[in-house]
Amino acid sequence: MKKYLITTTSLILLLFWPTQAQEIAPPQSIVAERLKLASEGRYIEELISLGRNPEAQGLYVESLDGTAILADHQSNVSFNPASVIKIATSFAALEKLGPDYKFETAFEADGTINKKTRTLDGDLVLQSAGDPVLATAHVNKMIRQVVQAGVAKVTGSLVVTGPFTYAGYISTADAMKRVEALLKKQGVRFSKPAKRANATGTMLANHLSDPLRDIVKEQNGYSVNQTADRLGEAIGGPKAVMDFLVRGVGIAANDVWISKTSGLNYNRITPRATVQMLRHLVLWLNFKNMLPQDIMPVAGEDPGTLRSRFTTVDYRGSVIGKTGTLPATDGGVSALAGLIYTHNRGVLLFAIFNTQGNVSTFRRLQDNLLKNLIAECGGAELSASLRRSDN
User: Fold this and answer.
1) What separation in angstroms does the CA of 183 have from each of 26, 106, 153, 177, 178?
2) CATH 3.40.710.10 occupies which residues in the chain?
3) pLDDT band for position 29 (50/70/90)?
4) How far is CA 56 from the centre of its chain?
5) What are the counts of helices (DSSP H) followed by strands (DSSP E) for the chain?
6) Are strands 119-128 and 158-161 parallel, antiparallel or unpaired?
7) pLDDT mean over 30-41
8) Mean pLDDT within 66-95
């Protein structure tokens, strides 16, 4: 039997909520109770004592079932979320493609191959779905397979369909040039310049990625910018992710702005909108028989940016989320958003955005805030109860 940690109230709500992400919205009858917890006040006081401007910080904490607000400081002000935006990128990709989706990259012959002359009379087509973790080794292996299939001369062009990037070649144009150079190095010559078009043909070589759920888990654990930017491009770029948040999740258009799906540069979202996104994500995952820790790191347990935080036995495994760090942008940005598992209050959703200050100092304040909040909510749930287990 599979076990899932979720509050009774939240489970009841799930029974009445639709299964499509674009239709999920909290019941209008729920009115959240505003709680005044000491941990929020201590956090603001410590910010001020360290000379940090309270107006440059945002905070919002709410119960998963939407019945209680446990912290609220400038929750409707837009801040730079840094790599927290990778949660949005992950959610948009999972919704569009599905958790088990595998990106396929393939070389195809759009024409006939003369085995004697080793000539492809037509185009060599590189079909690409935009694999965000495609590596040089994968491309080299496919090129060798093309040569082994009997192709040394192509009367047409190298044709690339769809978004195609790999390794450090982060634009389709650069990746195309590199692949054509690698093919020529292996003795493959083209009669016409490379181009982009819609074409299909006979399979010569292909590569399948790991399932999307595994890709975003590693992306979010290590906060891999290149993967997130390439994943964003595969589903339509920053605008597609932003449209998903507005039309699919219901976030107000003026509450979010995405320029890079990795979170680099200047992006904006409010703490309240971030929690709204997290709530939809948790419920969407539940309908897919998944948990938040399937796509985001568990603090103190999983490798990556949260491995060294919340490591003591009292807190390890009680926080699941995503970090965000931009030391040189907006005066220094540190963000943390995700879920807290507490004994008395169940699952809490939180978003903490700090700007205009030292990143290390902000991280310490974030950890202290969440630890104090957990203590006020009866302590943390142990990590063993957060994961699936088979009885």
Assistant:
1) 54, 14, 10, 10, 9
2) 8-100+213-385
3) low
4) 25
5) 10, 15
6) parallel
7) 89
8) 98
CA-based R_g, the chain, Å: 24
User: In this predicted structure, what is the pLDDT of residue 382?
Assistant: 61
pTM: 0.90
- What are the start-end ranges of the H helices in 114-267? 136-148, 172-185, 212-222, 225-234, 238-243
Distance in angstroms (rounded) separating the CA atoms of residues 347 and 339: 7
Is-contact 331 299, C-beta < 8 A?
Answer: no
State how far the Cα of 389 lies from the Cα of 391, in Å rounded to an integer: 6
Q: What angle do CA 262, 170, 120 make, to 5 degrees?
A: 145
Please measure the distance between the N-terminal and C-terminal CA atoms of the chain and give it in whole angstroms.
5
What's the pLDDT score for residue 236?
A: 95
Nearest CA to 111 out of 204, 182, 189 is that of 204
Q: How far apart are CA 231 and CA 134, in angstroms?
A: 11
Confidence of residue 55 (pLDDT cuts 50, 70, 90): very high
Q: Domain 104-208 is of which CATH architecture? A: 3-Layer(bba) Sandwich (3.50)
Residue 86 φ/ψ, nearest 5 degrees: -60, -25
Start and end residues for every CATH 3.50.80.20 domain found in the chain: 104-208
**What pLDDT, in 10s, does the model give residues 146-158?**
999 999 999 999 9
User: In the prediction, which pLDDT does 349 show?
Assistant: 98
Region 61-77 average pLDDT: 97
Pairing of strands 68-73, 104-114: unpaired
Residue 346 forms beta bridges with which residues? 342
The answer to whether the CB of 335 falls within 8 A of the CB of 352 is: yes
Is the CATH code 3.90.1150.10 the one for domain 8-100+213-385?
no
